[in-house]
Design a protein that fits this description.
The chain has helices at about 5-25, 50-70, 80-95, 110-120, 145-160, 180-190, 210-220, 235-245, 260-270, 285-300, 320-335; strands spanning about 40-45, 70-75, 100, 120-125, 135-140, 165-170, 195-205, 230, 255-260, 275-280, 305-310, 310-315. The protein has about 350 residues and is of the alpha/beta class. The protein folds into 2 domains: about 5-135 and about 285-310, Response regulator (Rossmann fold); about 145-280, Rossmann fold (3-Layer(aba) Sandwich). The strands form 2 sheets. It has a 6-stranded parallel β-sheet, with helices on both faces. The chain has a 6-stranded mixed β-sheet with strand order 7-6-8-9-10-12, sandwiched between helices. It is elongated, with a radius of gyration of 21 Å. The two termini are about 40 Å apart.
Length: about 350
C-alpha cells in the first residue's frame, strides 16, 4: 500500500513528535537495568485500547506489581501513535525503570521505544510485537494456537452437525495488526483444510462489534449459503453473533470466535445456538509475566526472551467449564479498578 498525501503528513507529524521526544529525553540517561534511586521500582504499563483483553492485562500487571511492591503507572494509547509517543515521553520524564508495552505498530512504535531504551529504560513488549531487539522480553498468547483450537472445534462441528459441508466467512483484523491476524487465521484454516466440501467464500476485516455487525450482515446478504462464521477477535465475534441474530438465522448459522468477555460467555450459554466455541487468551497471565520479566531484568537476572501462552477453548458443549471461567472472569473484572 502506497502512502497518500494525508499519510505522508501523518508520518511527518510522527517524525516531529519523535524528535521532540528525543529532545525531552536529553539529560535523562541512566545505566540500563538499574532502578532509579529513592525507593521502589517504577514501571509503566501501556495498552492500546479499552477492551476486556487490555483491561485484564492491566489487572495482571496490578496484581504482580502489588505483590512485588512496585509502583505501576498505567497508560492507554487508544490506538493513536502520537499518544503512544506522548506516553513514552511522560514516563521517561518521570524516570520509570521499565516500560511494559503493547505497541500499536510493529514498525511505527520502534523509534520512541528505541529512544527510551537508549536512555537506560528496560522495555518489555507484550501482546503485540515490534521489529528488532528493543524488548528484553516478549510475552503473548500464541496467535496461531488461538486459531488452531477454535478450528478443531469448528471441524468437529462441520463433520458432526453439518454433514461435512460448510460455506464459511472469516472475520479478521489484518488492517489493524496483520501479523497476529494472519497467524490466527492461518491456524484456523489449517484445521479445516482437507475437508472435501468446505469452502471459505468470504473474508473481511472487522475487529469492533459495530463494524462486524454491518460487514457480516452484508456478507450474509451476498452469500446466503454461508452456514459458519469464524472471527479472529472479541469485537468481531460479538458483531458476528449479533449479525446472525439480526438476519433471523439463529440456529442456521454457527459462529466460532476468539477472545472472551462476559458477553461472549453469555452467548455460549444462550439457548439460541449461535455461538458454538471461542478460544480465550490469557491476558491476566500476560500482564503478570510482563511485570515479572521487567523485575528480573532490573535485578540482572536471566529472562526468557519470548514466551507464548496457549489459549483456553470454551465450548457450548461444556457449559460447566464456561460457567467456571465466567466466575473467574467476574472476579478479575470486579477487582480490575485501580
Amino acid at each position: 500500500m502506497h502512502a497518500s498525501g494525508t499519510e505522508n503528513l501523518r508520518l511527518a507529524a510522527l517524525a516531529t513528535a519523535v524528535a521532540i521526544l528525543a529532545a525531552a529525553l536529553a539529560g535523562c540517561e541512566r545505566k540500563e537495568n538499574q532502578p532509579a534511586q529513592g525507593g521502589r521500582p517504577k514501571v509503566a504499563g501501556i495498552v492500546f485500547q479499552e477492551d476486556q483483553y487490555m483491561r485484564l492485562v492491566l489487572f495482571g500487571m496490578r496484581e504482580a506489581a502489588r505483590k512485588a511492591d512496585v509502583d505501576l503507572l498505567e497508560g492507554n494509547s487508544t490506538n493513536k501513535p502520537e499518544k503512544e509517543i506522548e506516553l513514552i515521553n511522560t514516563y521517561v520524564a518521570r524516570k520509570v525503570d521499565a516500560i511494559c508495552v503493547a505497541p500499536i505498530s510493529k514498525k511505527g512504535s520502534v523509534p520512541a521505544l528505541q529512544l527510551a531504551r537508549d536512555k537506560g529504560i528496560t522495555i518489555i513488549v507484550q501482546s503485540t510485537p515490534v521489529e528488532g531487539d528493543i524488548g528484553s522480553a516478549y510475552i503473548e498468547c500464541d496467535p496461531r494456537d488461538l486459531g488452531i483450537q477454535t478450528g478443531k472445534a469448528a471441524r468437529k462441528y462441520i463433520q458432526e452437525k453439518l454433514g461435512g459441508k460448510a460455506r464459511i466467512a472469516l472475520i479478521a483484523f489484518r488492517s489493524q495488526v496483520p501479523e497476529q491476524s494472519d497467524a490466527r487465521t492461518e491456524g484456523f484454516r489449517s484445521q479445516i483444510a482437507g475437508l472435501p466440501d468446505v469452502q471459505v467464500v468470504a473474508e473481511q476485516d472487522a475487529w469492533l462489534p459495530e463494524m462486524a455487525v454491518k460487514k457480516v450482515g452484508d456478507i450474509l446478504t451476498a452469500h446466503p449459503e454461508i452456514n459458519l462464521i469464524w472471527s479472529a477477535n472479541e469485537g468481531g465475534t460479538i458483531g458476528a453473533v449479533l449479525a446472525v441474530k439480526n438476519a433471523g438465522k439463529a440456529g442456521k448459522i454457527a459462529v466460532f470466535g476468539t477472545d472472551s468477555s462476559e458477553q461472549l460467555l453469555d452467548f455460549l450459554l444462550s439457548d439460541d445456538n449461535v455461538l458454538q466455541a471461542i478460544t480465550s487468551q490469557r491476558p491476566v497471565d500476560v500482564g503478570r509475566l510482563a511485570i515479572e520479566a521487567a523485575l528480573k531484568v532490573l535485578k540482572g537476572q536471566p529472562v526468557q526472551k519470548k514466551t507464548y501462552l496457549s489459549g483456553i477453548l470454551l465450548s457450548r458443549e461444556d457449559p460447566e467449564a464456561v460457567r467456571t471461567f465466567e466466575r473467574q472472569l467476574k472476579e478479575w473484572t470486579s477487582k480490575g479498578s485501580p
